[in-house]
Amino acid sequence: MTTPPSARPPRRRSARLRIAAAALTALFVAGSAATPALADDRTASTDTPPVPTLSWTECQGGGGFECASAAVPLDYREPQGQTITLAVVRKKAADQTKRKGTLFMQPGGPGNSGVDFVRNNYASLPSALRESFDVFGYDVRGVGRSSALQCWDDARYTQAVTDAKGVPSGPDLFGAAMSQAADFDQACVDNAGALLPYIGTEYVARDIDLLRQALGEEQLTYYGRSFGTYIGTVYAAMFPERVRALALDGAYDPVHYANRPYAYDRPQYLALDRSMSHFLDWCAADQAICGFGDGDPRGAFEKLKGDLDAEPVTTASGGKANGYTLVYRLMFNLNEGKVIWPSLGAALRKAQLRDNTSFLLRPPSPASFDFLGPNVAVECVDRDYPQSRHLLKWNVKANAEAAPLLGPAMAYGPPTYDHQHATACVQWPGEHVSRYDGSYRARGSEPILVIGTTGDPDTPYQDAVALSRRLDNAELLTFDAEGHTAFGRSACATDAVVGYLVDLKVPAKGTTCTDETQPPSSTPKVAPPGTTLTEIRNGVNERQDRIGSVS
């Protein structure tokens, strides 16, 4: 077993953005046309920022949803200065005399729209939530309708994912990955430089507290999933006395995520490959239902990646689907858990037959890129990677080797999703003024509910365990299952979350839910409850974050 090269303690990076910020500021802020000068001190001002006024109107498309805009400080070090406008949405409880308050719904990401999250999932929420709360969501700064940032344009992103490989090879994979990541970083500076310093999660948490006040709530009631758990954790750490109830589903270990990123990245590689391995093991044991692999699905999968790299499949739109496309789609669809396994088998078989109707042969789309750009940029602002390129190279190589099924494509691929951020973030040219770097204990908060899924391929279960221990007042709810998150996939977990949010009933210590839906006896013709069969509920392709509906 090799050991990583030593590195000096991470040091804060404060390289100035190489762009005229004033020219870009007008694209996304209200107020004067110049960006406020950045102080050496990154601490937010003690001045009180104004609470935004929300003027609600019926949303386009109706459905009883109300939309508004909220002006919040661009830079909380100058709370009376320029503002950035956030898009917000709510659906009011039908009987306002029985409502308990407002439920903030925070999707995963970073990069998913909170407005879409509420609008797309409201009808699937348990009736107790819809009856007890006004359900509220918003697009965080830099995402969706809230001054969405762009790094690479669609053409450049398309080129990058088309050139990527499922089985990367060559004399200098690391050097090529670093060059591509540097190009991505420069595009961020060129296209969104004036916004980049201010998209970190500390400022997002401050935005939430202003929105809480704007809605007239004394305390926050909140459901966050995946990256939304980190946002909720930072909020609790900063404003513990303002927490009424926080349900954090698919939780992050905040210390590893923000301050020890290599310790966070490695388990994520391993969890994803473990989920793929579990699927292939099932496929080998139940060939009649899986239909892929001819007795050796693991060998067939490795061959398929290489075959698609050598001879990509032409898609219906004229694009090219290769081994990287296959890995990219599996990375998200594995999050559905066992219920989707027969559909994955059928889709792999189609890919093997070069049938471009396989949902695993859909290259990332422009809608995907709207998600992926902020996904990389936010994490590069939030996370403090050591600057040693020698250490980075060691970790990239080690992660690729430790997760051989899906890891190499991600380790050496272009900046897209979580696993592919390190090469961009080590070279990140922007400032980190909005990064949270305080304690995560949230001392003095009301009880917080942390939910972890044992076979989660995206946010490993040990992260939920770690968060429940780092918080001063938290309880862990376990879902013993494959797939990402628990709410909406487990009736047991869903009931526990509802009881907690509505009545503040915290599950008993050690509570474990075991009601995962097992693989169907044949490939379903329609999506089982809580799935789409063609995309994760955190739907990157359509920029949707879907919650399942369990009976």
Automatic annotation (TrEMBL):
GO molecular function terms listed in the Swiss-Prot or TrEMBL record: hydrolase activity
Superkingdom to which the source organism belongs: Bacteria
UniProt feature, compositional bias: Polar residues: 511-524
Database matches in Gene3D superfamilies: alpha/beta hydrolase
Region described as Disordered: 511-551
InterPro entries according to UniProt: AB_hydrolase_1 (IPR000073), AB_hydrolase_fold (IPR029058), Pept_S33_TAP-like_C (IPR013595), Serine_prot/Carboxylest_S33 (IPR051601)
Coiled coil: none
Name under which the protein is recorded: Hydrolase, alpha/beta domain protein
Originating species: Streptomyces graminofaciens
